Amino acid sequence: MDPMATVSEWIEGARPRTLPNAIAPVVAGVGATIALDAFSWWRSLLALLVALSLIIGVNFANDYSDGIRGTDEHRVGPLRLVGSGAANPKAVLRAALTSLGLAGVLGLTLVALSGYWWLLAMGGLCILGAWFYTGGKKPYGYYGLGEIAVFVFFGLAGVLGTVYVQAGRVSWDALGCAVAVGSFSMAVLVANNLRDIPTDIEAGKHTLATRMGDGGTRKLYLTLVTVPYVLTVLMGIWHPLLFIAFAPTPLLLKPIKAVGGGGKGRELIPALRDTGMAMLAWAVLSAVALAL
């Protein structure tokens, strides 16, 4: 008899703690768009729905691909539907393809209504990137390229795409926000892969963390969470109100202590959540500052 996951298990399988990675770039992009006097609520909403569909799709695709490879059999962390046996792999695959398909339809709608047809290429790359992160015969996430992809898709593409689809151009403010959000997103994944180094090595998954080692990965995380605040100072020279983005830095105290202090396994799980919330708070406050 095929396993039947509960609604709560499906919700957990969608990894709601990763949603800030999709919301933050759109929020930051909206702030930069308002600064360009080009804000459109419906284009912003469609961009947000595309980002949310993409991240849910990549989460289910990751669950499916890692699950059928056996990578998640001894994983430390939140529930994995396939790896835990809670759901049939085909059901998780359908959920992944449905989410990615929805992202495609919403993205096509946004492009058609805005008229910027070349953005279809970027949207197609985002969907392919979501699938081949852990899918296919040679998933790039298994070769240490996952962090770069997160920076590109949920940093540069997420922020700059949100701005361009509304303003028809980007700005230095938008680029600064894109690099900052991308660095935060990378930090979330670095913390995740730091936690999984032992099980990933055992499963033959060569993430950037397994290549850099425990110490190097911890230093990378600390560097990445510093980048957004360096950019805040630089951007604050022209927009002094941006210094309010320093307000949520206390959210990073616990994850910095956990990562910098040698935390392992389950001790690192809250670091993912807190880093994501710090990213979202930074994006919201930066957007408010740019809008004003």
TrEMBL record:
Catalytic activity: an all-trans-polyprenyl diphosphate + 1,4-dihydroxy-2-naphthoate + H(+) = a 2-demethylmenaquinol + CO2 + diphosphate
Enzyme Commission designation: 2.5.1.74
Membrane topology qualifier: Multi-pass membrane protein
Pathway as given in its UniProt record: Quinol/quinone metabolism; menaquinone biosynthesis; menaquinol from 1,4-dihydroxy-2-naphthoate: step 1/2
Cell membrane found in the keyword field: yes
Protein name, as recorded: 1,4-dihydroxy-2-naphthoate octaprenyltransferase
Superkingdom classification of source: Bacteria
